[in-house]
Design brief:
phosphoacetylglucosamine mutase activity; alpha/beta; globular; transmembrane; five-stranded mixed sheet; 21 helices; about 600 residues; magnesium; EC 5.4.2.3; Alpha-D-Glucose-1,6-Bisphosphate, Chain A, domain 3; isomerase
Length: about 600
């Protein structure tokens, strides 16, 4: 890093001093806290995004959002060139620069230069002092003082340097082989949701990105989080990356699926409107844009921005509270309803029970099951084609990825279908990474965040099969199955979970089978469950394995949990340390709600006795 670049960084960073007493940690959601504390952090994440763009030679994204959090919060996260989340390898660096105590701490060499300069000055002062003193004892005393002061200064600066080694840019740039001097131009796409604090924070992030010479920061305006991720992925694939092109792709794919609906299928859903709770967030404006271009689906959007963001509305509220969101009531009994979260990356469905504010939730597990059933059916139809039989050297692998929080009934149902189901630790980054190992990988969390990934190998194979079928049996069910799978790969946002694209795929599949939301929900019955948390002195004392379903440490606790679980039919229970607070989280499910509650309380008592 040359002196000019170093000076620019220190000068701009001094305008964004970090808040005192706040420690930031980059996780699946990026950095997220009260918006008033974030200005220095988003500035520094802008620097990180620019460095990532230079290193990869690709466009990188930066999104300012706090998703389902309260409106006074905000956050920032980076979209990698693939459109996915920031690589986990860079997360410690994100923590380090966010927590650097001052601008000079961002630049390692400056600290070493300061240390050398001070040592040289001390030595100069020593020579001046000695020359002014004739007596040897005085000279020896001054020499001892010089050694003591210089040694203390060297040790102090070295200690600070070593403590902050991960914080400093020079070290990281060298470690990652990022060439700043003469590097090609880099680009960061910026986006934000509708929070009032977003505009100021995006401005700070832009200054951070452009503080790295040669970097362009393009403000894409107010977007859903998935739209920004889609734009990053598209731009790096050489595809036009605008809102219009995003909607063009979604709607073209949806219409392809609509046109491939089997003859004779009931079209009752076409005459039933879908009512969407938009969480008073960015999804409201985007749903209205979608409605204007959709002729095959009736949508009524509610909570589109007049109320308080995420207050009594949104996918997180609906999924956790299991009651109607604001603006819904008994008059909506029987209607098919959906709910987005504040930045439109989560989606859940529900319907209202008669004369009640209670709902029947159709969550991410049910969405995953619907998608898995549809894709399995299309692969089955496609495998019956003579073209495919003749070229059976390639067999696509379909995998379903869940966490231990997925309802056991959904996992059992998927396994009964003959599908491969694997579990990962909690967190979208783990789910996404595992799903990418399959030709077709489907993942969802119960909260409604998830997507489908298609490998390039599978898509190339599918495109070849479709072309063959077009020439030999155009319009056949096998050719339509190939077309449906290709359309699905375009409709779903493969970069990240996307409530808008997911909603269109759900609607297309329900139309394809002529299913109501009630028929969909009857695929299986969720087992009753209960989640608790237990405050502990040290959450790190709990170590888990097997995707957090088995406690390795402390010894004995897993055996005790197993004994309790065995008392309840269909019982399942696990504990895991929280990633954000000093608590241990308890999950239990059983055949009845009373049994699930009792099992959860038993496990919580065990945790409290051993660790509380």
């Amino acid at each position: 890093m040359n002196q000019q670049q170093r000076s620019i960084l220190i000068d701009l960073a001094s305008r964004f001093p970090p808040p005192s007493g706040v420690q930031f940690s980059y996780g699946t959601s990026g950095f997220r806290t009260d918006a008033s504390l974030l200005e220095s952090t988003v500035f520094r994440v802008g620097i990180l995004a620019a460095l990532r763009s230079i290193q990869t030679g690709s466009v990188v994204g930066l999104m300012v959002t706090a998703s389902h959090n309260v409106v006074s919060d905000n956050g920032v996260k980076v979209a990698d060139p693939s459109g996915g989340m920031l690589t986990q390898r860079w997360e410690p660096f994100a923590d380090a620069i966010a927590n650097a105590p001052d601008p000079h701490s961002l630049v390692q060499v400056k600290m070493l230069n300061d240390c050398n300069a001070f040592l040289f000055l001390d030595y100069h002062r020593f020579l001046v002092a000695v020359s002014a003193m004739g007596h040897p004892n005085q000279q020896r005393l001054v020499f001892v003082l010089f050694c003591f002061v210089s040694f203390f200064r060297f040790i102090s600066v070295s200690f600070i340097f070593n403590m902050g080694k991960e914080v400093l840019l020079d070290d990281f740039v060298k470690k990652e082989n990022i060439l700043l001097d003469g590097a090609p131009s880099s680009e960061v796409l910026l986006g934000r949701d509708t929070r009032p604090s977003g505009k100021l924070l995006v401005s700070a992030s832009a200054q951070g990105a452009t503080s790295i010479m040669g970097t362009t920061a393009n403000d894409m305006g107010i977007l859903t989080t998935p739209q920004l991720h889609w734009m990053v992925r598209s731009k790096n694939k050489g595809i036009e990356a605008t809102k219009n092109s995003y909607y063009d792709q979604l709607l073209m794919s949806y219409r392809l699926l609509f046109d491939c609906i089997p003859p004779g299928v009931s079209d009752n859903n076409m005459f039933e409107k879908l009512i969407v709770d938009c969480a008073d967030g960015v999804g409201g404006e985007e749903i209205e844009k979608l409605k204007a271009r959709l002729s095959d689906l009736k949508i009524e959007a509610r909570n589109i921005g007049a109320g308080v963001l995420n207050k009594g509305v949104g996918a997180d509220f609906v999924q956790k509270e299991k009651i109607v969101p604001r603006g819904f009531g008994p008059s909506d009994f029987g209607a098919r309803c959906a709910s987005l979260d504040g930045d439109a990356d989560r989606l859940v469905y529900f319907y209202i029970l008669s004369d009640s504010d209670k709902i029947k939730l159709v969550d991410g597990d049910k969405i995953l099951t619907l998608f898995a059933l549809f894709i399995k059916e299309q692969l089955g139809i496609l495998n019956g084609a003579e073209n495919v039989k003749a070229n059976n050297s390639y067999q696509p692998c379909l995998g379903v990825v869940q966490t231990a929080y997925a309802n056991g009934a959904s996992t059992d149902y998927l396994k009964q279908l003959g599908l491969e189901v694997v579990l990962t630790p909690t967190g979208v980054k783990y789910l996404h990474e595992k799903a990418a190992e399959y030709d077709i990988g489907i993942y969802f969390e119960a909260n409604g965040h998830g997507t489908i990934l298609f490998s390039e190998t599978f898509l190339c194979w599918l495109d070849t099969i479709n072309n063959d079928l077009l020439s030999t049996s155009r319009g056949s069910e096998q050719q339509k199955a190939a077309l449906r799978l290709l359309a699905t790969s375009k409709l779903i946002n493969q970069a990240v979970g996307d409530a808008l694209s997911g909603m269109l795929l759900v609607e297309a599949i329900l139309l394809h089978w002529g299913w109501s939301i009630f028929r969909w929900n009857e695929l299986y019955q969720d087992l009753p469950s209960r989640q608790l948390k237990v405050k502990v002195i040290d959450r790190a004392a709990v170590v888990t394995a097997n995707a957090e379903t088995l406690v390795v440490k402390p010894p004995g606790i897993q055996e005790a949990i197993d004994v309790e679980t065995a008392k309840y039919p269909k019982g399942r229970c696990f504990i895991r340390p929280s990633g954000t607070e000093d608590v241990v989280r308890v999950y239990a499910e059983a055949l009845t709600q009373e049994a699930a509650d009792d099992l959860a309380r038993s496990a919580a008592r065990l945790v409290d006795q051993l660790l509380g």
